[in-house]
Amino acid sequence: MDIKKDLLTINSYSRPGTKLSKVTKIAVHYVGNPGSTAQANRNYFESLKEGKCNSSGQLIYASSHYIVGLDGEILQCIPEMEISYATNQANLYSISIECCHPAADGKFTVATERALVVLCADLCQRYKLDPLKDIIRHYDVTKKVCPKYYVDHPEAYEDFRQRVRSLMVIEIDTTMDVVRRHGDCYTVAMKCVDKPVIYPGTEKVVTVCPPYPYGGGWRANIVAINQAGSSTGIYTRLPDQDKTDGVLRFEFKIT
Ligand SMILES: [Zn+2]
Questions:
Q1: What's the domain range around 234?
Q2: pTM, to two decimals
Q3: How far is the CA of 242 from the centre of ligand 1 (A)?
C-alpha cells in the first residue's frame, strides 16, 4: 500500500492542528465532484486556508485525513494524530477518508474501492477497531447523503465492510511474550478469514511455517531456531503491505 504524504499547511479552515485524542471510528466519504482527482481535492482543501466563503457567505471548513483517487492512489493530507474537518461532531474521534469517483452516482472504481479496503483494514488493525461496527459513513453521523453510493446501496456498503474484515487478522491468541527453548515450537492461533501473512521482524531467530486453516481460523507453527538469548518480534501484515507496515503482535524469546 503506497501512501503519498502531501500534508496541508496548518490553518484554521482545513488543518487546525488540534490533537485527535482517540480514534474509535473510521469515517468514509465521497468527494461529490465526479472525475476530480485526489490531488485536485487535496489542493482544494489547501486553498481554503485563505478563508473562502460558500454561496451563502459562510466560511468553508473542510478536509480529510486521506483521499483515495480514481486509480487507487492514496494521498495523506493530515497526520493521524490531528483532527480533520470532514465528519462534523465525529471529527473529534474519527479518521476520515474521502474517495474520488468517476460519475454522479458516486460509485467507486474497482481500484479506488480496493485501496479503500486495504487502508481501512490497516487502520482497523492499528487502532483495534471492528470494521462492521467502527467503519461509518458520513451519513451515519449527519444523514448527509455521503458516500452516496454506499447510502443508496446499503448492500454494497455491507459488502465493503465485510471485505475489510476478511483482510484483517482480527485476533491472535497471545499478546504476551512467548518463551521457548531452542528447537521448540509455538503454534499460534489467529482469528481471520483470509490466509494471514505472519513473519518475524528479525531473520534467522525463528522459522514461521506457512499458516494452515484450523477451526474456522488459521494457525501457524513458529520454531525457535536460534540460540538462547535471541529474540524477535512476530508481525502480521496485509497482503498489499510492505514488511515495514506490519503490526507487531508479540515477542518471541529463546531461552
Ligand atoms: Zn462526507
A1: 170-254
A2: 0.84
A3: 30
